Amino acid sequence: MTIVETWPAASLLLYTQSTIMESIANSQTAPSYLALHPVGFWKRVLNCLIDMICYGTIYVLLKDTLLKSFFKTYPADGIVGVRSSNVVYVLIMFFYYLIWEATCGRTAGKFITRSVVIDEDGNLPSFITALYRTLCRFIPFEAISVLIHERIGWHDMFPRTRVVDVNEYRAEMSDIASRD
Fold it and tell me: For the chain, which residues make up each domain, given as ranges?
């Protein structure tokens, strides 16, 4: 039994993914971000690991403070304490990605690996695009979506963004500026 048979939403996601990829392939004027090559798979994995370390560190440093300020009686143990901790972890992860990508198009991992997020027009993502990209990270099985189709994760495919090498991006932008 495949995942599509056991989880009906997977077939919808796969259909949506193939429709988006088809429309990109069939468009008369390809968006400029398609001219730039996305960073490789292992660079994306390294970005993810570095970012996990960063927001994990923020979580460890701020967890008790945030929980005690949000909950008057914070139970450190038990199911309520675990659920509260999970909520704080998800919120830290959400705001980590949203703030970094909305303000500079890069997270700490992308700074270290010299990568940048761009939208379909070749620009840094707007706040709305960064928000959409961040929300897509919380789709179930999103982490393995890079294995399904052309190594593009759902958090890139749905908001139509791409992670590219920062030097290639700067070279393309200066080439465009010199043509104008």
Answer: 31-179
